[in-house]
Design brief:
The chain is mainly alpha-helical. It is built from eleven helices and three strands, in the order H-H-H-H-E-H-H-H-H-E-E-H-H-H. The protein starts with 5 loop residues before the first helix and ends in a 14-residue tail after the last helix.
Length: about 325
């Protein structure tokens, strides 16, 4: 169903889904006619099956409940499909999936980039079309603080899958479906969608400071005893250094008499916000991340998410009921 653009691709896919739904409805009604005729129930039953009773997830009349219009259900189906596309993209970022081979790629404990490349070579793929993240730490932040953060990784994924020529239109299609820009979705909504999709047993874990000033995704299957050390030394401390420099620039702006008063006031308010973030992250590093990193915790995938996730309490974003 893939077309040149996401809009065209989704339109073709939606048409295919509607065909599946219509065919299922036809078959169920035909079955009803057979049984009604066989048991002489024509005076008591009718063969018609309402569209809402066609139990396919691609049928919005069934899968999207509530008191909604057909147009609202169509909008929600489009949004849900884009969220699934983003979820698949993240799976490719961490190496769980690949654009070059079907099925799961890295699904065993402690999977590495070398394991990923070896699996692709076994499939006859010398180099991946879209390489996964090398260290299993993907920052999820509200700005362009790291070149390999989740938003930039997704933009690269979209360019790889649908090309540069339609990149802006494709990104606009996704953001229109979601009702927000892609960075805002990843920072605020992606993880909730993920753990809900996996029934509170997420396979991607969100390392998060108490107020969310710093966030990063790690894949459970690629977790290693040194993963938190990589996150601490390669990302958290680097982010704090960048915040320190940003804070210093804001203070300079706030004290610059050549700048308009409104701009100086805005800079001071931003500086106060950044100062609170810095204080939060230093305390979190000292009390939570550094001690956990030093412990070099090992996990057993056979114990499941329910047993492993609470081991990192204070480091991972809390999930109600887990």
């Amino acid at each position: 169903h893939r077309g040149e653009t996401l809009d065209g691709t989704y339109t073709a896919l939606r048409k295919h889904w509607q065909g599946m739904t219509d065919e299922m409805q036809r078959l169920e009604e035909e079955n009803n006619r057979i049984f009604i005729d066989a048991y002489g129930l024509a005076d008591e039953l009718t063969p018609e099956v309402p569209l809402a009773e066609i139990t396919l997830t691609c049928n919005p009349a069934y899968s999207i409940g509530g008191d909604k219009t057909d147009a609202q259900r169509e909008d929600e189906l489009r949004a849900r499909t884009m969220r699934e596309f983003l979820s698949y993209a993240v799976g490719c970022m961490v190496g769980r999936y690949s654009l070059d081979a079907p099925g799961l790629i890295l699904a065993d404990a402690g999977g590495t980039l070398a394991d990923y490349l070896a699996r692709l070579r076994a499939e006859g793929v010398p180099e991946p079309t879209y390489p996964p993240d090398a260290d299993n730490v993907i920052p999820v932040l509200d700005g362009d603080w790291f070149a390999d953060d989740i938003t930039e990784r997704f933009r690269a994924f979209l360019r790889t899958t649908f090309g540069e020529a339609h990149f802006r239109d494709n990104l606009a299609f996704i953001e229109d479906a979601l009702g927000k820009d892609i960075r805002r979705y990843f920072v605020r909504d992606f993880y909730r969608d993920h753990w809900q999709r996996y029934k509170k047993r997420p396979i991607y874990w969100m390392v998060s400071s108490p107020r969310g000033s710093f966030q990063a995704l790690i894949a459970m299957h690629r977790y290693r005893p040194d993963t938190l050390s990589v996150l601490l030394n390669g990302y958290l401390r680097e982010y704090q250094r960048k915040l320190d420099a940003h804070h210093a620039r804001l203070i300079e702006q706030a004290d610059d008499a050549d700048i308009a008063q409104g701009a100086r006031t805005k800079a001071m308010k931003e500086a106060e916000k950044v100062a609170r973030q810095i204080a939060e992250l230093r305390e979190w590093e000292r009390d939570v991340i550094h001690p956990l990193a030093e412990r070099r915790i090992e996990i057993d995938l056979d114990d499941g998410v329910k047993a492993n996730y609470p081991t990192f309490a204070g480091a991972l974003k809390a999930i109600p009921g887990l």
